[in-house]
Amino acid sequence: MPLLEQVLEKNPQSVKLVFKNFPLRSHTFAQKAAVAALAAGRQNKFWDYHDELFKNYNKLDDKKFKEIARKLGLNEEQFEKDRKDPLILAKVKRDLQDGINSGVRGTPTIFVNGKRLKIRSLEGFQAVIKKEVKKQKQRQR
Q: Which fold has domain 23-104?
């Protein structure tokens, strides 16, 4: 099971996953891929599409985006329409700027309560989560 899924499973009451796009400028199709994933998300297939993008990261082009949509059973006409929606592109650009403002330089970068996670293991996550939950409980007293 992927690491983030393990973290969510172990901490269902205290962890919420927030995904932000950070299309790397060095990757020709990164921004288009981010837009395509969000377009798929409008059909409740964001994570499925996201996972397919990562499986095919070195084969991405407009043809591959359409192939993935077809493979996932998306309404292709709606998918293409959503890929052209300026609101989706604006979200990708906002996410990118948020990342830049937070000091993100690459992907994946993981934050827990606004602090960059340095130890990317289940134990590393659990230690930080435990510390943050304890702080939250102390504030509530």
A: Glutaredoxin (3.40.30)
Task: Compute and round to an integer the Cα radius of gyration of the chain.
Answer: 17
Among the listed residues 9, 1, 20, 2, the one whose alpha carbon sits nearest the alpha carbon of residue 129: 9
Alpha-carbon distance 66 to 75, whole Å?
Answer: 11
Evaluate whether 36 touches 43 at the Cβ level (below 8 Å). Answer: no
- Write the secondary structure of 47-115 as one string of H (helix), E (strand) and C (coil): HHHHHHHHHCHHHCCHHHHHHHHHHCCCCHHHHHHHHCCHHHHHHHHHHHHHHHHCCCCCCCCCEECCE
Q: 3-class SS at 116?
A: strand
Range 110-131 average pLDDT:
89
Taking only the tens place, the pLDDT of each residue in 4-48 is: 899 999 999 889 989 999 999 899 999 999 999 999 999 999 999
d(CA 106, CA 99): 9
Domain limits of the chain?
A: 1-17+107-141, 23-104
Residues 141, 25 contacting (CB under 8 angstroms): no
